[in-house]
Amino acid sequence: MRRATKYLVLWVLLVAPTAFAVLALAATFAYEPDPALRNLIAAVWGTCLILFGIPLLVSLALWRKYHAQEVQLQTVGSILRVYDALPLTEGYATGFIDHASRTFRNTGRGVPPPAAPPIPHAPPPRPVPTAISAGATPMRYCRKCGSRVYPREGGETWQCWSCGHEQTIEG
């Protein structure tokens, strides 16, 4: 069940007790019974009128709000049905989504596309050592895990201390 229908049903259910309370309150003042009894009856029926009247008015206001919104959507839909040929290219709209305003901007209607985002700078390349001093050993890295490898004693091989992979010196 739609929300507007729920509000309308609630309104119909509240009309009967509210109308009965209004008539009873009017009859109390029209026939003028004993003043003490009249005040008591007026207080009871006035309370009933308030208890049923306020929800009646609230449900009526909510129903009017949603009914007006539904009528507006139906009107917009009927207007859009008239324009069956919109300027689209091969079934797709040409444009972009403006993330700042969360709207679609149609470039086919004269809205310029946004500028290209700036290209981030790549970090500068590592400096390549030109000459190695006489006593220093060059740094090498493991071909398996990428960690640093160290020369093994008494041979031409290098070993990774992380994964244990051995490498030989290649050209």
* Shape, per Cα inertia axes: elongated
Mean pLDDT over the residues: 75
Beta-strand segment tally: 6
Enumerate how many helices there are, as a single number: 2
**Main beta sheet, described?**
4 strands, antiparallel
What is the assembly state of the chains in this entry? Answer: single chain
Q: Low-confidence parts, pLDDT < 50 over ≥5 residues?
A: none
How do the helices and strands follow one another from N- to C-terminus?
HHEEEEEE
Category by helix and strand content: alpha+beta
Beginning-to-end CA distance, first to last residue:
80 Å
Q: Looking across the biggest beta sheet, what order are the strands in? A: 3-4-5-6
- Percent in strands: 5-15%
Helical coverage, percent range: 40-55%
Radius of gyration: 42 Å
Features of the shown structure:
12% strand, alpha+beta, 45% helix, 6 strands, 2 helices, two-stranded antiparallel ribbon, four-stranded antiparallel beta sheet, 171 residues
Helix and strand layout, with pairings?
Blueprint: H1 3-31, H2 35-82, E1 95-98, E2 103-106, E3 140-141, E4 148-151, E5 157-160, E6 166-168
Antiparallel strand pairs: 1-2, 3-4, 4-5, 5-6
Helix pairs in contact: 1-2
Explain what this protein looks like in three dimensions:
- It is a single chain.
- The chain is an alpha+beta fold and 171 residues long.
- Among the domains are: 3-82; 139-171.
- Helices cover 45% and strands 12% of the residues.
- The protein is built from 2 helices and 6 strands.
- It has helices spanning 3-31, 35-82; strands at residues 95-98, 103-106, 140-141, 148-151, 157-160, 166-168.
- The strands form 2 sheets. The protein has a 4-stranded antiparallel sheet with strand order 3-4-5-6, with no helix packed on it. A two-stranded antiparallel sheet has the order 1-2.
- Helix 1 packs antiparallel against helix 2 (35-82).
- The longest helix is centred in the middle third of the chain and has 48 residues, at 35-82.
